[in-house]
Amino acid sequence: MSHNPQKRAALATIACFASLLLGCSGPADPATTILKEGTFGFALQASLNKVQDVIRQAQAAGNDLLISAGVQAQNAIVGAQCAYEKSLGQTKDALDDSTRKAWTDIDNLVQQLEKKGSQDVKDALTQAQTIVNVLPFANKRPVLSSFGPHFLVPGNDSYVLHLDGNFPFTSDGKTFPTVVVEGNEGKQLQSSTFTTTGIEVTIPLSFVGDAKNDRLVAKNMTIDIPWNNTWGRTGHAVFKLSLALLPLTPGTAVVTHNTKSSHPEQADRRSGVFDFDSHANDIEENRELHLSEEDITAGWRVVPHSGYFIMVEHREGDEGHDWYNKGLQTENDTTVVWRARTEHKAGPFGTGHSGKIKWQIGCKVARTVTTNGTADETVPLQWGMSKILDYPAGSWKAVWKRYDKASPEFNSTNLENALFQISATGDSFTIKTFGL
Fold first, then answer.
1. pTM for the full predicted model
2. Where are the beta strands (DSSP E) in 138-214?
């Protein structure tokens, strides 16, 4: 199994979180001491339970940062259980100032962690490390700083669990850290690496179980780390971890994005009616059809060479003798100019026929209509994938149709979930799933 960090991350899908009951193996082991309500020990255990709840929720949500902060918080709590073991049965008013401050600091830490906001979690990480650093004998007992991978992708035969921290007193060379996975009691897995800063243990996937379609597969795991305790004997630091094998696939993503479609439209337009009556004299003039402001604003334009003459009422005279359609004179995209002529005719005894007509100008108009809408694109998801979608910011929404039927929505960059992340730029966004 490669120790390359990127290779390790590709093994991901076991959500490991720690219950961290640290067996101090001293004269008054807090793991076996019965403590009354109102005592320091009772408060520490209550805080530990709250942190475990937060981590379980973070596990279900794929929140890597919150899982890590929870581990650090638990590390601070169990460290306090060991460092102040002689004071665990005392109430707050009976404690000395430094121990009372530790109690208050841990209460504040848990409250900060329970807020779950991104900055709150970062602050909780810092607070937890500060508490660990100032605990009595902080450099003389095991401290678990982090572990991983947090998630294990189905399909691998095994993965390497990495425990990082401070293990200042390793064992005598005859005893090593061991791991027991729930359902495999009696089958201890021994560490392959055990140093003062790191431990590695290979966990066969068969010890965890088969991946499901619609849920995580959770298993408890106990890690036993031997160390030379302050009483000169080999003690055992016991960490409770929970493993969750991810489903076979993350589900699907449905991306709803804005669309624009265009289509041409055509219509007819007519001018007003022009009355040419040559009962007294000849008439030859231009008339025009001009598109209204409403038409122009709506995008209508005159189709070139589409103008035509319309006879509205023929009252008197013959075409080509008494009245004349003189045709198109000029045109542009909003105007058509046409010319007509009528002539006055005076015959003997008033028998002549003059040109008398009512007429209009007609033309074709056209425009391109753009319609805004939406369309859906379905993206099948696999672990360890990355897909770029070319939709600009503000024009899309992604719904993660998760394996457990939940459907969280995203419309901008969101990196809070380790299992499904979106990175958005101006012109596109990228969907990534855990395992890259």
1. 0.67
2. 143-148, 158-166, 178-181, 189-190, 193-194, 198-204
